[in-house]
Write a structure and sequence with these properties.
The protein is mainly alpha-helical. The chain is built from 5 helices and no strands.
């Protein structure tokens, strides 16, 4: 029961941050959800598939929590809770650091700041890293094969979105500044020099 309660708090904090940011930006006239909008071809396909995946995974997480699917021992579940909590912290810090430049998906029409400060000095994609850590943590706490499948599928879609949509956009928009940043900071975690 303790892990179920922890998981509910983790998901509430994670998705609470996500939706609070969207509502806050909406009040400022900012359209946060840019997934699939203004895109065509592979970019649109990747973002829309990613959106479907990100809608399915929390439903499977909630069912797994309610059913209390238990595959791993209590210590392993505890490690999962810690990983998920770190994921929430990383996500919240990344959203706060981005301020009003944060978007879900790439916007070709909004002029946003190129953020390289704070947590973005150690990860080019800390929000995605936060998502991945929450998914991995939930897998450790409530492992089942369906949760594994949807979590991995979603993480793969995040990676494809980063590689083939976001990084292309950032290179086109910020050019040399983005290349310099990319040379210094790893895609998910770490600095190169």
């Amino acid at each position: 029961m303790a892990f179920q309660i922890m998981a509910v708090f983790i998901l509430a904090a994670f998705y609470g941050c996500y939706f609070t940011k969207m509502i806050s930006q909406r009040h400022k006239g900012i359209q946060t959800d840019q997934i699939g909008k203004g895109k065509a071809g592979m970019a649109k396909h990747i973002e829309l598939t990613m959106k479907i995946a990100t809608c399915i995974v929390p439903m499977v997480e909630v069912v797994s929590i309610v059913r209390n699917t238990a595959f791993f021992s209590v210590p392993v579940k505890g490690i999962g809770a810690g990983i998920a909590a770190i994921g929430v912290a990383v996500f919240i810090i990344s959203v706060i650091t981005m301020q009003d430049s944060w978007r879900a998906g790439v916007s070709r029409t909004d002029k946003t700041e190129f953020v390289t400060r704070g947590i973005y000095q150690i990860s080019r994609n800390p929000a995605f890293l936060g998502f991945d850590l929450v998914y991995i943590g939930m897998l450790f706490m409530f492992f089942n094969w369906l949760l594994l499948f949807v979590s991995v599928w979603t993480m793969v879609m995040f990676h494809l979105q980063i590689r083939f949509v976001e990084e292309v956009f950032l290179l086109e928009t910020f050019g040399e500044a983005y290349l310099n940043y990319k040379d210094k900071v790893c895609r998910y975690l770490g600095r190169r020099r």
